Amino acid sequence: xxxxxxxxLKKAPSLTFEPFGAExxxxxxxxxxxxxxxxxxxxxxxxxxxxxxxxxxxxITNTQLVLQxxxxxxxxxxxxxxxxLNNVRTKDMGEIGQMLAGVVAELREFDAxxxxxxxxxxxxxxxxKLDNLKIKYDKAEGNINRICKVMEEHQITLLxxxxxxxxxxxLNLNYFKELSMYILAGKxxxxxxxxxxxxxxxxxxxxxxxxxxxxxxxxxxxxxERFEKKIYDLELTRTISMQMAPQIRxxxxxxxAMSEKIQSTLVNTIPLWKSxxx
Length: 278
Prior knowledge:
By secondary structure, the chain is mostly helical. The protein has one domain (about 45-275). It is built from 8 helices and no strands. It has helices at about 1-10, 45-55, 65-70, 70-85, 85-90, 95-120, 125-210, 210-275. Helix 1 (about 1-10) runs parallel beside helix 7 and helix 7 runs antiparallel to helix 8 (about 210-275). The radius of gyration is 32 Å and the shape is rod-shaped.
């Protein structure tokens, strides 16, 4: 999983018209310069140029292009939200909590027994008392050591998961930016289509009065609406990515807290108990 995350993190955000196959390189059409839309995210100059160039290549009259627009990025986020966190959620935090409680119970039970035996066995020989104490201590220590060994393994897993979640958080940010770039390019193209191309078609239809020109203008207006709905669909997917960020941090926080409890038990609680038995 970590290797896969490292490989995915090395991939910079990219834009494509054919997310599930080979992509031809379309020629960039000459379009009228328009003021760029206000960016919703902070882009580098290279990323902003990528958005501008990509927007110039969008053909909203191409039904296949509109259907697949941003689909690859949407699939990345869908797969990420469905599968990535499952690798972390499958571990049983309840089991770890029971182990921690088991250690505390074992220590308390030993102390309680020794307090009772110490009073009732006051008149016993010192050698017998020491032998009984050693037997009980060895038994308790054996149980505790077995539990601690399992807890150490869980702690290693928790620490690895915490590191993996950092990479997952960064990967989610990359997906969020890539999808945002699709949205920015789409909005930029939609603005150009409605303020430049559509008025031209409407003017031509009004001037000629021909039914085919009127139909062409109506068709183009419908295509603009269809593309706007596609952009809205991308924004819904982006919301999923936004919601993933705090979820990742919450799981990471829980892992860290549990790891700290294990660490405190291993380096403080148990050594302190053993030192009292010396």
